[in-house]
Known about the structure:
This protein has helices at about 1-10, 30-45, 45-65, 80-100, 115-120, 125-135, 140, 180-190, 215-250, 255-280, 300-330; strands spanning about 70-80, 145-150, 155, 160, 165-170, 195, 205-210, 285-290. By secondary structure, the protein is α+β, with helices and mostly antiparallel strands. It has a domain at about 70-290.
Amino acid sequence: xxxxxTQNTHSSPSNADVDFPRARPMESSxxxxxxxxxxxIWQGKWLIIAITVVFAVGSAIFAINQPNIYKSEAxxxxxxADANNGGLAALASQFGGLASMxxxxxxGGVGTDKxxxxxxxxxxxxxxxxxxxxxxxxxxxxxxxxxHMSDNRLSFDPKLYNSETKTWxxxxxxxFKPVPSSxxxxxxxxxxxxxxxxxxxxxVKLAMEHQSPFIAKQWLDWLVADxxxxxxxxxxxxxxxxxxxxxxxxxxxNVADIRAILYKLVEEQAKTIMFAEVRDEYVFKTxxxxxxxxxxxxxxxxxxxVLGTMFGGFLAGIIVLIRHFVRKEI
Length: 330
């Protein structure tokens, strides 16, 4: 046993002779990089300050030159259509099957959400195009340069519109023309018009923005009046066409029950026309009318200056770092 142990001792190296790799202290590359980063930024501090000041001054000039925009708002309540459709709905539930035998559909149009329909009509190209043409507001929409508060006067951009001759002088490439098209005016109008509907209450809020607070209020009043008029005219025209059709059906049938239904339908259409004629606020009832705003809605000049200055400082820091590492690689 002793000899075996001795041989093993001589044949195997001792722990002292084994060359284990020594643990080296970890070098914090992140700390070195941060020190180098701050050092580079400190060395280029004057360039950073200069670029930041340029952006600060530029953003201040840009903010000052932006015109004030005023927002006028109106709160509208949808007018219930129960008065118009109540009798027709009762007839549909009572005599729907019998009327269908005569080729008359009592359910058509019942339950239609007139509020959604009116909102979509309000934002449509046809409605807004006719609105702009009717009120002759195309120059005030697309060529205003400045609103003068002292005398409530608008000045127009001479590169776009000649206010003395009332002609468009803007230079555009085909297919555009000097006079803005209905598509152009429609896009421009949607930029200053906001329509929102509360899902819980159903209330509709209209908002109009313009450099002139008086024009913003006036256009909003015109919009409410025009959409009520247009929707009323659509329903009256439809009721009149339905009445003509029903009268023809009365002449063609000899069944007493069907004739009775058709006469009641004619009566309901007459009620629709009557309600439309006596009600100016046909689709929307004004709860909170538009007012001339006293304070501007935008621009937020302080925010523009702060964001411009921050962007300038960030860009300057990036430039300094890129310049340093490019020189280092060379």
